[in-house]
């Protein structure tokens, strides 16, 4: 099984922190993942970036001037376009003990305190990247299935029309039986998709 990632499956990682040193440290830790890393120095910048392009995961500092991490996360989760993007909160060790609870309550997928273990952070981000890729693959499979379903439905409609036109054909009874069975299969497929 190949572990190579196609360019279609690549997704950016959004790094949100108001401190340059923290952004540089995150880039150093995550650079080996070979995924695009996008910086945002504030919650406002993060929201603009999220509306411009898709992201697999957001690494979000809790303490920032202006829109803090909690408010930024709440805004991310409020928008249909961004609500499913996982958020990993990052905060200093001197953080209020209620921060973790607030982070999870806001919709965070995970919460790490600084200084974080680079291996742990990289492993957590890798899990979200893998989930993102699998989701993209499922979306492509679903689109392909929907296209095939529509094509089959159109073929059945045309076949039914031809059978109706050729009412005197000697093989009509057999063909109508096969058409009826195909329609049953199509009906079952429709039922299965609606559940």
Automatic annotation (TrEMBL):
> Which InterPro entries does the protein's record reference?
Bact_response_regulator, CheY-like_superfamily, Sig_transdc_resp-reg_receiver
Q: Which residues carry this modification: 4-aspartylphosphate?
A: 61
Task: Show the Pfam families listed in the entry.
Answer: Response_reg
Could you tell me which residue ranges the Response regulatory domain spans?
12-129
Query: Which superkingdom is the protein from?
Result: Bacteria
Q: What PANTHER family does the record point to?
A: RESPONSE REGULATORY DOMAIN-CONTAINING PROTEIN (PTHR44591:SF3), STRESS RESPONSE REGULATOR PROTEIN 1 (PTHR44591)
Query: What protein is this chain from?
Result: Response regulator
């Amino acid at each position: 099984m190949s572990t190579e990632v196609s360019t279609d499956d690549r997704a950016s990682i959004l790094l949100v922190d108001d401190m340059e040193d923290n952004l540089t440290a995150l880039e150093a830790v995550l650079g080996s993942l070979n995924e695009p890393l996008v910086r945002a120095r504030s919650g406002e910048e993060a929201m603009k970036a999220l509306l411009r392009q898709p992201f697999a995961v957001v690494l979000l500092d809790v303490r920032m001037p202006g829109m803090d991490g909690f408010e930024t996360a709440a805004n991310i989760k409020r928008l249909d376009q961004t609500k499913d993007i996982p958020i990993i909160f990052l905060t200093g060790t001197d953080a209020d003990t209620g921060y973790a609870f607030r982070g999870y309550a806001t919709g965070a997928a995970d919460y790490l305190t600084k200084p974080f273990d680079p291996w742990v952070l990289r492993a957590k981000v890798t899990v979200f990247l893998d989930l993102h890729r699998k989701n993209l693959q499922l979306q492509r499979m679903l689109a392909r299935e929907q296209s095939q379903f529509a094509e089959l439905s159109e073929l059945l409609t045309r076949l039914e029309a031809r059978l109706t036109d050729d009412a005197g054909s000697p093989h009509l009874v057999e063909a109508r039986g096969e058409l009826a069975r195909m329609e049953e299969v199509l009906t079952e497929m429709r039922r299965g998709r609606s559940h």
